[in-house]
Specification:
Blueprint: H1 7-10, H2 12-22, H3 26-56, H4 59-64, H5 68-88, H6 94-119
Protein name: Rod binding protein
Organism: Litorimonas taeanensis
Length: about 120
């Protein structure tokens, strides 16, 4: 390789377009990927919500009561990890609700886009 990168390699949008054009089934694969990305975003949001809830509940203060500043420096990381584990075990069900809402909006947007393209 000469070190030269084509615009398709440097621009992710171009790469997605090239992938979609080159393989007819890639649209189905990209929809599955988008669904997975939507679910991951929903889980991340639930974890952030649980993290804030745990921080404001006083968990951080309780954990560092006898540990000093050294323990306090890592308390936020511990609480974030704890929240992620809660979500991985099913959480409070918020991620599923967020996912359903985000997917419904995505579907409605796609339907609207297809209607507008048909009329033009």
């Amino acid at each position: 390789m000469t070190g030269f990168m084509s615009p398709i390699q440097t621009n992710p949008l171009s790469a997605m377009t090239a992938e979609t054009v080159s393989a007819p089934h890639s649209t189905v694969q990209s929809e599955g990927k988008e669904d997975a990305e939507i679910m991951q975003a929903a889980k991340d949001f639930e974890a952030a919500f649980i993290t804030q809830m745990l921080k404001y509940s006083g968990l951080g203060e309780a954990m560092t009561k006898n540990g000093g500043e050294d323990v306090q420096a890592f308390t936020d990381f511990y609480i974030e990890n704890f929240a992620e584990k809660i979500v991985d075990k099913g959480g409070f069900g918020l991620a599923d609700k967020f996912y359903d809402k985000l997917l419904a909006k995505e579907t409605a947007h796609a339907e609207l886009e297809s209607v507008l393209n048909v009329k033009s």
